[in-house]
Amino acid sequence: MCLISVKCDYCNRGFPKSRRRINESIKNNWNQFCSKQCLVLNRIRKVMLECDHCQKKYLGQKRVLKRFATHFCSIKCRTIFHNQLRFKPRKKCKRIDCDSKVSQQHSIYCSQDCSAKDRRKSPNHFKSKALVGIRQFVKEHDRIPVKREVYYLYTPAKRAFGTWNKAIKAAGYDPNPIMFSKRYQAKDGHWCDSLSEKILDDWLSLRNIPHKINFPYPGERRLTVDFRVGDYWIELFGLSGQHKRYDQLKEEKIRIAQEYRLKLISIYLSDVFSPDKLTIKLNPILQNLPQPI
């Protein structure tokens, strides 16, 4: 009988086998084993593996060999192995006075205290930001700003000076007085009862829109509208919701406008100190610029 040497499909050792048996195995797509022990071991799904972290021998699933390049005997070994790769090049804390190492991968500070101390700005920073912002606003608008216009400056001003009015004084200006306690002169020469009226008057003058102030309403009552622009009556309700008597006059003016079918445009403080809202409210006037009254 002619014997041919073939390799075991389990241990890869060579062993003799007859030509007839070899052809039979190839025809039926059978594996060939050198012994019964290799046949039994091949049927076992687990194989002996070596842990890549602790080099410990353990039984693992055979499919792990093909699916994963690394093998671990436990979750602990796997976690330690990957953490060592991830955090191996530990960096120094970003804060200059701290010599500790950063433990987290995406962090730049070793602790929350270092992060807060390093990002904490000095009082001079807030002082400079508030003064520069206030002076820049006065240079552009030729008046003192109010808090609702430049609220991004209010926090720096409060931290540096304590109050908004103290910041205005530190910038070299007199704070805005109480509403309606001082009259303001607009750029076109009109005298306005409040700063908000001055802003609205300057808005109309800047766009060359002819207008009149304190124009009387039709009827027997001596009520006047803040601005008259052609067929439009512009009323600035600056104290709406703050005084009971003021709200009564507001309702009376709205009633007169409805009775005589006047084109009344109601403006509030939130509109005055927002250029976008003011433009939207007065858009009908911009579309139909009136002739001089």
In brief, what are we looking at here?
With 293 residues, the chain is α+β, with helices and mostly antiparallel strands. It has helices at 19-28, 36-43, 63-67, 75-86, 112-119, 123-141, 151-161, 164-170, 195-206, 244-259, 269-272, 275-281, 283-287, and strands spanning 3-7, 14-18, 46-50, 57-61, 184-185, 191-192, 212-216, 224-229, 232-236, 263-267.
What features would you describe in this structure?
This protein is of the alpha+beta class. Among the domains are: 44 residues, no CATH class; 48 residues; 104 residues, Endonuclease, Chain A. It is 42% helix and 15% strand. The protein is built from 13 helices and 10 strands. It has a 4-stranded mixed beta sheet with strand order 7-8-9-10, with helices on both faces. A two-stranded antiparallel ribbon has the order 1-2. A hairpin with a 6-residue loop joins strand 1 and strand 2. It is elongated. The model has no long low-confidence stretch (mean pLDDT 83).
